[in-house]
Amino acid sequence: MHELSHDHLRSAFAATPLFDEKTWQLSPEAWPVTAEQLRELEAIGEACLEFHGALEQLYLRSAAGKNLLRNKPLVAPWVAEYLDRGKPADLVRHARDSRNRGALPTVLRPDLLLTDDGFVMTELDSVPGGIGLTAFLNRLYSEAGDIIGAEDAMVRRFYQSLAALAPGVRNPLIALVVSDEAATYRPEMQWLAAQLQLEGKRVFCLEPDDLFPLGSALCFDIEGNPEKIDVIYRFFELFDLANLPTAHYLFESWAAGEVAIAPPMRPFQEEKLTLALFHHHLLRDYWAEALSKRAHKLLKRLIPQSWVMDAVPLPPGAVLDGPQVGGGPISDWHQLAEASQKERNLIIKISGFHESAWGARSVVLGRDCSREEWQNGVEIALQDAPTHLHVLQEYRKPRRVQHRVYQQNGDARAVDGRLRLCPYYLVTDGRAQLSGGLATFCPPDKKIIHGMQDAALLPCRLV
User: Fold this and answer.
1) pTM of the predicted model, to two decimals?
2) Strand partners, 176
3) For 74-90, how does the pLDDT look when each residue is reduced to its tens digit (9 = 90+)?
4) H helices within 85-130, ranges in order?
5) Domain range spanning residue 385?
6) In total, how many domains does the chain have?
7) What angle do CA 338, 343, 347 make, to 5 degrees?
């Protein structure tokens, strides 16, 4: 393995800006992943795909009032109510439409923290940013080692996963539609489209206003000529639909069978509270039955204990399935506001379908904030509960690790930090294939790890 020079990296990023006005730290080498970790990452991808299949069955059977288990009664209409809360009725109908049955996200990206006990999965994203960035980093660092996702696996499989949605179409026209809300990520989608165009693929990065209907088809203009779109990859969250003037054309063209949309516009697949449902005591038998033993065991180890903060009053004598406060159980989520700092090893975050549900915008880390900030976070979560549920999750602290990072003078130095690893799984032929990994290496004082100016963003290499 040889290292990439500081000047080489700076030149590469200057020539291909992949994020709008974003910078990060540079490193001479990719993040090292052991063979054992690689095997675990591959197993995590299959488990996440299984989880999504089981989640769809759980949601649809809950919505229909059907039994969830094979040999004993379990009806849980509250699951669908949780997942549909705050969503427009027409979007809920679309999510339940029988023509959507079996439609799962084409890209899966769990957020994995590296702790003293191994990986911990804090979220499972089905509309992830970083696809183009990771593909670019894979290509850039491939000259310096055995990169996971080399040979353009991200680009190739991303295309394959979308082209498969237009069976029988020889060279489908694929539109990567990026909303203004997600405009930060538009450059990486433009880069992805450009790479595929070089291979003769008809892939274009568009804005929502570029779309227009022609009969029941959905089109966009190429040199004055309307071209029919076969597949749309939507890079926007579903709460953003209300801000898109052309959104109703998406539903109409999809209903007419003229266009496929990935990821599917099914909001239950994008709620963070699904990880809390995995731990819900009333659903333990369901997950054990719906998942393979291997996937169930792996997810139980990966997913931190999580709860849905629903402000529903309990009868006298009842207690919540939740964390303890003052050494005992609680019967009202408001009691959480009185938790001691030691008991606040917890994170509050909004579940989804909201502008603050991505990019760590809504995250409140109990042990890292003042008592007033914690109490305010609890109060906001409970006030919002009638329309926007929040999730409470145990905080698993990432362990300190070291990696070499370039300093301002261009010298590389080993520094302490904490790691979030985001593997990207492209779903093709019913399999979740590990196609790359984005490592975010942050200074050790950063409790919430995400892309930031102080972080190094790196691909992964096998060691």
Assistant:
1) 0.96
2) 205, 233
3) 999 999 999 999 999 99
4) 89-96
5) 305-394
6) 2
7) 90
